[in-house]
Design a protein that fits this description.
The chain has 23 helices and 25 strands. The protein is globular. The chain is α/β, with parallel strands linked by helices and about 800 residues long. Bound molecules: adenosine-5'-triphosphate and magnesium ion. Adenosine-5'-triphosphate binds next to helix 1.
């Protein structure tokens, strides 16, 4: 493995010399954390944008950064065409038959040629099958096809569900979500309605608002039903029927109903839920690259899906803790039409929100287009990295130069408009100007060969073939406790509630399943306590809930907490009154009074102390512990991010450590070089030329242009060589050469030191190999807070095997 792969640096290509018209040996490495300020990739068709962005996704995957990819054209699914063995047989099923025919070759011959091209292409960029294997193993790759079963369908059913707390608690986000959902819904139903101003839009927004602020989920059929009978009587100051008469509402309901009834629409309700957390991480926390292919959809459906997906992404993002490292990528190719300068299609608002806010959450947005003039100017100003390929028209170029110039001015950089203009006009394909606000100025580079086989858009059948063998993603289950089953002998019941002694309170559990008529209330004792799970060494401090029910029995020990069952019910969830239709089982005689309640309460506290323990996971290497209740999946996802943050911090530290040393060597070198040039001039030496570059060393690539000018070092070494060849005899020159050689040696030493330090970083920060130990955290007596012990009536249904809980 190359050293830079341990450092969160993305290998995108090599620097390109526009004068010589060829790539140099200097690697172009891009700091993964620079991507949190987003990237924009523009260039005319065939300039290599998709190739560049796929290389970026490959690098991210290798670095365990998950990505959500929106693929309007169908060629991003090429990320699944990865063949570590690079054999002709691997390629044969996937070559484009038309391309083979056009080449006058059989598919097998064409595949063999393609395999050879890929192998050579990769080798020319220092890559091989092993790196392909690394990519393949680093993440789970999936092609989703919303509204189609060719790939994995994505269900939008949950999309009308009430947004989670992160959104519901923020009025602006909630309003945004309501507006975009209403707009997309109307767009999908092809209702010609002015967003925001039309009564159709206002009504749907009102329906969403009243359900969502009450935390209630909606389904499309419910929305249709509520359009006919809305949950509100007035809209603004008007009563509903004058604002939007019932007959007109019926027409709107019909339009949406037709959508629901349209053949094929049911596919939108199938498949995995559109849940961003699931699209980004697998069951064990493994990063996922989820490609949403939308090439098969019509324009309205695409817009509907893209805005839905982006809105969900914002919701997910807001629930993440802040970070300065890259956490995930959202990449959309062919962005034109979704982010126009003047109009406001539903996808624009969430995109703008992402560009403005995603940075704080470590979510990097990557956008690509052929047409920079079709993009919203304000949004572009939020992109910290611009990749500019060859541009077709003067208008495109002018737009891009304008943007670059204003970015440079903001960043306080010099901007040579004319030279960049010239460079932009003469770029061959796969050569880009990169302007990264985190660096000193623009760089020209050629993109590296992609590990994935870029065969072009995949069709339905190919997507189907790619996805059929895939393992289903295991759902993340949350266990919910319930009361234990009871023997049938407890079924005897009286209609009236038993009379309770003074000082004994009673509560009821709501009836959950109403199947059958033979439901009875069974007496149980409910206990609820909170205890503090704290461990300063593990940096854990949290309150843990314990809620249980245990049967109130007729035996000598009426209440046995050891026989209790956990139940996911808090005291506030208990009901004060029961269902009058349900009969009560008899209370054990004489068991219940204020004194026994007090004893049971005490017993419950003692039982909590003796029985409760929280199993936590501890990462063997980093020592980080899971939070109480955190699943292994969530913990592993968190570990990946903390280790990425640790690594990025370490890289910064290394840069700071090496920068002054390099700067000092550089200064000595500059002086030695001047001396050498003076001597050479006097000795009438021939003109000095050709460069060997310092950038090929790790040190040069690692520092980029952030702290050291690779070119100065390169020139100095050159000077020494050129001179060395021509005027060997001059002693002065010899001395200058020696100085330069010594500095060179010193730099080589620095390079070796850096290698050694980097080798240590990997072991320290590789979250994927972390072994997890289990450690137990137990309650202390003083931190147990028993909140309630009381009689609860639990509904039970009689069945063939006895009584089963019906709450
Ligand atoms: N990094 C790369 N490695 C190997 N081949 C590449 C790479 N980049 C581009 N190519 C080749 O060049 C062709 C065109 O590049 P690409 O599809 O990336 O262009 P584009 O700018 O996305 O064009 P469009 O705007 O039409 O989508 C690809 O089909 C592929 O054959
Ligand atoms: Mg493309």
């Amino acid at each position: 493995m190359r050293d830079f792969e341990k450092l969160g640096q993305f290998y995108l290509g090599r620097r390109y010399d526009p004068q010589q018209k060829q790539a140099t040996d200097d690697l172009l490495l891009y700091d993964s954390k620079d991507l949190v300020t987003h990237a924009l990739c523009v260039g005319m068709t065939g300039s290599g944008k998709t190739g560049l962005c796929l290389a970026l996704m490959e690098e991210a995957a290798i670095d365990a950064v998950p990505a959500l990819i929106i693929d309007p054209k169908g060629d991003l699914s090429n990320l699944l065409l990865t063949f570590p063995a690079l054999t002709a047989e691997d390629f044969t099923p996937w070559v484009n038959a038309d391309d083979a025919r056009r080449n006058g070759q059989s598919e097998a011959d064409y595949a063999a040629a393609q395999a050879a091209t890929w192998k050579q292409g990769l080798a020319a960029w220092g890559q091989d099958g092993e790196r392909i294997a690394r990519l393949k193993n680093a993440a789970e790759f999936t092609i989703y096809t919303p509204g189609s079963t060719a790939g994995v369908p994505l269900s939008i059913l949950k999309s009308f569900a009430a947004p989670d707390a992160a959104i519901a608690g923020d009025p602006e986000l909630l309003r945004n979500r309501i507006q975009t959902t209403a707009t997309t819904l109307l767009g999908l139903a092809a209702v010609d309605a002015d967003p925001l101003k039309s009564r159709e839009h206002i009504l749907i927004a009102t329906i969403l608002q009243s359900a969502w602020t009450a935390g209630r989920d909606l389904t499309l059929p419910e929305i249709i039903q509520q359009i006919q009978t809305p949950p509100v009587a007035r809209i603004g100051v008007l009563d509903l029927d004058s604002f939007f008469p019932a007959s007109d509402r019926f027409a709107l309901a019909m339009a949406l109903n037709n959508l629901l009834a349209a053949p094929g629409f049911d596919v939108w309700m199938q498949g995995e839920p559109l849940d961003i957390g699931r699209l980004l991480y697998g069951a064990g926390g493994k990063p996922r690259i989820s490609i949403c292919s939308i090439a098969h959809l019509g324009d309205a459906e695409r817009m509907f899906f893209v805005s839905l997906l982006l809105n969900q992404t914002i919701g997910w993002m807001r629930s993440q803790p802040g970070t300065t490292s890259l956490r995930a990528i959202v990449y959309m190719d062919e962005i034109a039409g979704y982010f126009p300068p003047v109009a406001n299609p539903p996808a624009k608002a969430p995109l703008l929100t992402l560009l403005k806010q995603a940075r704080a959450f470590g979510v990097g947005v990557v956008l690509a287009t052929q047409n920079p003039v079709d993009l919203d100017y304000k949004g572009l100003a939020n992109c910290g990295t611009w990749f500019l390929g060859r541009l077709q028209t003067e208008r495109d170029k002018a737009r891009v130069l304008e943007g670059l110039e204003s970015a440079a001015t903001t960043a306080g950089q010099a901007f040579d408009r004319q030279s960049i203009d010239e460079t932009l006009s003469s770029l061959p394909s796969r050569v880009f100007v990169m302007n990264n606000v985190h660096e000193d100025g623009p760089v020209v580079f050629e993109t590296r060969w992609t590990l994935s086989y870029l065969r072009g858009p995949l069709g339905r059948e190919e997507i189907r073939r790619l996805m059929t063998d895939r393992e289903a993603v295991t759902p993340v289950a949350t266990p919910a406790g319930e009361p234990p089953p009871l023997p049938a002998s407890r079924a005897a019941a009286t209609a009236a509630p038993p009379v309770l002694p003074a000082g004994v309170a009673q509560y009821f559990l709501p009836v959950r399943s109403s199947s059958g008529t033979s439901i009875t209330y069974q007496p149980m004792i409910y206990g609820f306590a909170q205890w503090r799970c704290a461990d300063s060494k593990l940096k854990v401090d949290a309150l843990v809930d314990v809620g249980v029910v245990t049967p109130l029995s007729t035996g000598p020990v009426p209440v046995d907490w050891n026989g209790s069952a956990p139940i996911d019910i808090k005291p506030a969830d208990l009901e004060q009154a029961g269902d009058p239709e349900i009969a009560f089982a008899a209370l054990p005689p004489n068991a219940l009074n204020a004194k026994t309640m007090a004893a049971w309460t005490k017993g419950f506290g003692a039982w909590v102390y003796g029985s409760q323990s929280m199993e936590l996971m501890k990462a063997a290497h980093s020592g980080v512990a899971s939070a109480p209740g955190e699943s292994e999946r969530d913990f592993r996802i968190r570990l990946q991010q903390t280790s990425r943050e640790g690594r990025d911090a370490m890289v910064e530290k290394l840069r700071r450590k090496y920068a002054p040393k390099i700067a000092a060597a550089q200064e000595r070198l500059r002086r030695a070089q001047q001396a050498l040039e003076r001597e050479a001039e006097q000795a009438n030496a021939q003109k000095l030329q050709t460069a060997i570059s310092f950038g090929t060393t790790l040190l040069g690539a690692f520092m980029g242009r952030k702290a050291v000018s690779a070119s100065t070092l390169g020139r100095a070494t050159t000077a020494m060589r050129g001179v060395g060849r021509t005027v060997k005899e001059s002693q002065d020159i010899g001395r200058a050469q020696e100085t330069i050689a010594a500095i060179e040696q010193q730099l080589r030493q620095l390079d070796d030191d850096l290698h050694a330090e980097i080798a240590g970083i990997e072991a320290q920060f590789d979250a994927s190999t972390e072994t997890l130990e289990t450690v137990a955290c137990k309650p202390k007596k003083t931190t147990i807070n028993v909140q309630l012990v009381a009689l609860v009536w639990v509904p039970y249904a009689a069945g063939p095997g006895g009584l089963s809980p019906a709450w």
